[in-house]
Every structure is written in C-alpha cells, then in structure tokens.
Amino acid sequence: MSNPRIGRVVMCVYMMGTMKIDGYGCQCKNRSFGHCCEQLLSGCAPFPTDVIFVLDSSISQSVEQFGHQLDFVLQFIDHVNISTEEFQIAIITFSFDAKVEITFNQSSNKDSLINLINKIQFRPGATFTDKGLSLALEVARQSERREGMVTLTYAFVLTDGMSTKRDDTRIAAKALRDANVRVIAIGIGREVSHQELIDIASPGDQYSPSYVFSVGDFNALYALLKQALLDVKELEKFLVVLSNGQYEDPSSIKDEMARFYDEVDVKVFVVGVGPDVNMDGLLSLAKEASQVFVTKDGIENSKTYSHAVRIYVQLLSGCAPFPTDVIFVLDSSISQSVEQFGHQLDFVLQFIDHVNISTEEFQIAIITFSFDAKVEITFNQSSNKDSLINLINKIQFRPGATFTDKGLSLALEVARQSERREGMVTLTYAFVLTDGMSTKRDDTRIAAKALRDANVRVIAIGIGREVSHQELIDIASPGDQYSPSYVFSVGDFNALYALLKQLVDITCDDCTALSHFSDIVFLLDEGNDMTENKFEISVDVMKSIVENTDNIGGYEGATFALLQLRNSLKYVIRQSSGHSKSDIILQLQILSRMRNDVCSKDDQCEEINITTAINETFHNLYNSTGRQGARKFLVVLSNGQYEDPSSIKDEMARFYDEVDVKVFVVGVGPDVNMDGLLSLAKEASQVFVTKDGIENSKLIVMQSEFTYNVCK
C-alpha cells in the first residue's frame, strides 16, 4: 500500500473514483483505518504544511487591531493539528524592521505554540512590509522540514496594505511567490489599500478566485485547508442586495437586521447603485461594513476581486469615511525653523499614511503662509497617494512675516472652489499648523471665524520655538463630543483620530467613545522664590485642570497624583482609581506650602533638583502605581528660575529618550523665565504661562490629550 519515498504521511483523496496519487496508494494515519481510511477520527491526513504568519505591527495598526491579527492566528491553529508530520507554524512581525517571533522548531505542539503567541508584543513603527516578506522568504528557505517528503508552504500576510515602500513590497512579494510559497493577504486596519493586497497575494485559482480576504473572514483559512485536506464540504449561503439605500429609518432597519443575523446563517452583500446612494441605508443592511460596495455607473465593476461578489467600486474595510476635503495650512514664517517646517510636512505625510487618497474618500490641499499665502497643492492634484507624496516633498520653506490671516482666508477660497463629487455629502477640514504668533492677531481671529462659519472644521496644531495657546484656541473649532478641544501639538495624533472618528462614527460602530485612561501627576516646584501668591496660583491651576477633566476615578477613568518639591520630594496625593474629582479638589484646597527639611548641625542636607525630581517621580510613582496601557502625563508647575537651563535641557533630552511620558510645563507668576520652562518640555507647544490665575482657560488644551479618541 505504500512506498518509502512517500514518507509516513500522504493525502487520502477520492479522485476519479480511484485511490491513487501519482500511482501510489494511501497509507492511513494512526488515527484512521479502513480500505481507504474511510473510518477515521478527523478526516484525511493533510500534506506536511509550513505556515508563516507575517503580522503588521506598524503605527497604522492599533493595539486592538494587532490583537485581532493574533486572534486570527489562534483561530487558525484551533482548526488544524500541530505536529512535525502535519502543520508547523512560524510567526513574523514587522514595523521599522522585521522579527521572527516564533520559528517552526518552536511549534511542535499546540499548547506550547499558543503560550508563545500570547507573549507576542505590539511594537509600532513605520510600515516596512517588504522586510516582513523578505524575512518570510528566509524562514521558508531555512525550514528543516521532513526531508524526502512533499511539503507545502503558505504565508499569511496580515496588513492594511499601506506600506512605506510600495515598490519594495511588490518586489519582495514576487520573490516569495516565486519560491513556491502560496501567499494569502488579509486586510486589517483603519483603512485598507486593496490594490497592495492584490499585489502581495498569489493569484486566484480553482480553490479560490482571490487570495485577498478580511481578517474576520475565514475563507482564507478554508481555502488553505481545502488544498491541504480536500475535505471542506460546508456550503455558504449568500444574499446580494442591490439598492440606493434611501430608507426613511436606517436605525430601525439595522436593529431588525441584527435580529435576522442572530437567527440565520447567511452572508449579505449590499451593492449601492447610482450617484446618490445613502450610505446609512446601505450599512443598515450589512453585518459588516466590508460587505458594502458602491458603484455609481457600472464602469468600475472591473476592479472587483472579492470571492463572493464581482461588483466593485470601493471595498469598505472596517469603517467607511465620508468623502472629505482636508486643507493643511502650514506656517512658513520666520518664527519657524527649517526643522520645524519639516515637522509640519512630516505631520501631513503621517496623516496621508493613515487614509485612502481618492476622489471617493480623502482629497488633500496644502497652503503655506508667511508674507503672503500660496496654494502648494490643489485637490485636483491629490488623486492618488504616490503622486501626492512626491508633491509634498517638493514644498519649500519660505520664511517671512506671520500673516496667518492670509493663510486662513486662502483656505476659505480653496474650500469654496472645491469641485467635489456633485450630489454627495462632503465634509471639509482645515489643519492649521502654527505657533500662534501671528503678525495681525485681530485679522487672524476674523479670518478663522469666517472659515468656521463656512462649515469648515478647524483643527489647530501648535509648533514653534514658543507657542501662544490662546491664539490657537481662537483659531480652532470649539470642542464637542468627539474631542474636548481641537488644539493639539504636532506630535499628537489625537488630531487625526478625532477627525477619523467623526467621519466613521456616522456610518458604523467601529470607533470607541472617548477614552479617559490617563495617569496624571502634578509636580509642584516650590523652590527658587516661590511666593505665597505664586503658590496660590499653582493650586488654582491644578484645581482648574482637575475640574475640566471628565471621568476621574474607576478603572478606565483618569487618575491624579501630586508631589511637592522644595529641597526634598514629598508625596501628597497618591495615584488611585478610588479618588473621585471631589476627593482630589478637597485635598488641593487644604494643601499647604512645603517647608525645607531641617538637618542636624553635623549633617548636610542633600538638595534634590528639578530633573532628579522628574526622574524619581516617573520611576517610583508610575512604576509602582501606574496602570498598564494608560497614557502617562506629568504636569510641572514652576516659575522656571533655574541657574543652568542648558544643562537641564540636556538632562531632559536623555529622560525623553528613556521613558514614555508627556510633560506639560505651567509657568506661574509674573516673572517666569521662559528659557527655564522650555528646558523642561519636549516641545514648546507643551509650555503654558499663567501670571495671575485668570488665564487658566487656555489649559483646556491639555484635555485633548488626557481625554482622547482611538479609532479601531
């Protein structure tokens, strides 16, 4: 019945009424018996198969989405036998670089493999998919798999298709396929580039018309199992609904459909037809947004590759944004440096990396301003991501006076002139990146109001040597249910997530509410001539911040702690999720000034400086009472009167390299030293000044970081 060249494992399959493969008979596994292994415990034995999972751990994924990738791997493992004779698993993650998390040699049994998978960490960075694919090729070639046995090799690549180097990704994918590795691409992320997934995946065949799937779609798994086992007999039922979605009450329809899906096992695809489709209506019918398609005129149907429906315009991955115009207004004035202007362009590029650029989704325009304002890129020039990135890299810094008002007025013209999709709901946003130090402040306020009155949502991003938060507040749209403030710093991607949440929250439920999961520590520096008046201002500042912070206490709420610094460090309020807002305010109201430690005549008091205090605060307080996964903030209150700000700046630079905490600095009193305050902060936009406590309203800007959006 067997031949030694076949090895211990061969596939048992009915083929044209015979039981022959290449002229050889079948040898039953120890769990199977009978003439044709027809009496068995778990079906016919598969070919020995190597499966490599290549997981996207880049910044374009969230922690939750990375968790979904691991869940997919665990679901896969649950469907197969892990052993040296059947399935062996290797796992690679990629971001800035690629890393082999689990080798084939480590996957000898299912329990040990699951334990290893649960230890894999999310490590965000750039999206170098090409490195993940190249490493997969190395792993495939190095496999010490069963000599003399037929072995199949598969690579599951889970990503959003938004790679940093698209050409390199295509080359690496081709090399992997050319090495007889079947490549299956699984789309996951806030937005998905289906074209890149197609470029990565193996072409369709008799087992599946396409090897591009979504992470929740186990057709990818069954397509593989069908080839390895030839034993998948389940039939799926599909319903394809063609409609314009113009229903009176989509919310009621969504509720009825939810009950329908609970009762029946059918997959519903919804195809919106015509130029005036109502997305709310279409989405109310579907179980997932990825099952909704739109075709305006039928011309775009040729782009389809879905295994279930051959009609395509736009496969919605997760959440579908409304058509959106985004105008970036960049400060190219003399108050910015070349490096800071480069940071502005980097922010724009990072934004573009998170969204799909097309006439149906996001379109981008860019304006720069100094003495005058200039349209650098129009909406018509941003038809695809690659060409847009090339244009952005050509934008030049042109320093001059800071006529922010001219940039805002030109943004209004660009918004009004947009030839955007007739008959479609279109949203418009303006991101204004500046230091808030405009030459004509009144004119800036007037121009910003005109822009907001034209239904343009204005988001202000602070960048520069020093930042005027009050002007940023005057420019930005007021806070709402999506974000308590629309003033951010250039390194803070809440600005991006606040925008994405608004776009997708209207059409699906894939975005969470605001998150308040933050650990906030006050460090009150009472050295260097801290008078009674400055102390009272500092207390008022802390009370104002606490009063404006929502959802204090509880496991998922914000927590506060307080330390006082004089010649020693004193812990006043310990971090605890049991403290309510009223508890913290009460403790602040009874707070008294700290006295210097008294040392004996023979002992010398060892004074602690500000940087030592900050280091000790982080390493002792956060490490002992901080919650895993919570954002960490340190709010330093000081007058900035330090002897050597330059040395402090160097020490703080080393501190920021080592820890993940955001430091806000609040200068109190009329005689603050800005050099001292700036030496503590990573960015000037994180420095605030309040002379008498009356100006505490500008501190609302901090709330946009304490309370933040996370798009899933």
Question: Could you explain the architecture of this structure?
Answer:
- The longest helix has 17 residues, at 63-79.
- Helix 18 (645-658) packs parallel to helix 19.
- The protein is 32% helix and 19% strand.
- It folds into five domains: 1-45, no CATH class; 49-229, Rossmann fold, CATH 3.40.50.410; 238-303, no CATH class; 324-505, Rossmann fold (3-Layer(aba) Sandwich), CATH 3.40.50; 518-594 and 608-706, von Willebrand factor, type A domain (Rossmann fold).
- The strands form five sheets. A six-stranded mixed β-sheet has the order 5-4-3-6-7-8, with helices on both faces. Strands 14-13-12-15-16-17 form a six-stranded mixed β-sheet, sandwiched between helices. A six-stranded mixed β-sheet has the order 20-19-18-21-22-23, with helices on both faces.
- The chain has 712 residues and is α/β, with parallel strands linked by helices.
CATH architecture of the largest domain: 3-Layer(aba) Sandwich
Q: Decide which structural class fits the backbone.
A: alpha/beta
CATH superfamily of the largest domain: von Willebrand factor, type A domain
Output the radius of gyration. Answer: 30 Å
CATH level-3 fold name of the largest domain: Rossmann fold
Major β-sheet strand ordering: 5-4-3-6-7-8
State the shape: globular
